[in-house]
medium-chain acyl-CoA ligase (Neopipo cinnamomea), 187 residues
Amino acid sequence: RSFHGCNRLLTSQIISHYDSINQYKKELPEYFNFASDVLDEWSQLEKVDGRKPANPAFWWVNEEGEEVKWSFEELGFLSRKAANVLSEACGLQRGDRVIAVLPRVPEWWLLSVACMRTGIVFVPGTSQLTAKDILYRLQASKAKCIITSDTLAPAVESVVPGSQFLKSKLIVGKGSRDGWLNLRELL
């Protein structure tokens, strides 16, 4: 029963524990969507039932101390708007791939949830990617959309002619750029 002072479970105890876990039969959904099945459910608990206190679902702080706080209801609302931008303005459908080459700004998480909501495949990329890295990812993933910041847009533009699948380019920033859709304006 004990080995070097550590209590160990007997085989019969392990099997008994395993059997007790297997006795709990949870019905698994045929389709699961984190955005609608978890976030929207928490939003409902927060909003209507009052069973969940209004704690932030998302809380982001940058180096300068600027904060962004979203409740579950706000995150759900904004992610639905972002999902509409991806589906309508960018023309993406379930199964299409989108590459996000962004620093971890609030829009990164918003787009991640929007992709979950719509079934669009979110391909994250670090903001340290070079133009050659971006081109490789565009070609390998066959992404139809790329999302980046205004500072990284020139690197993307330098390789766009090499990507035959890319249909839309979305920029996260305050400025505008020829041939790019602006996420903040569309939201």
Q: What stands out?
A: The radius of gyration is 22 Å. The mean pLDDT is 86.
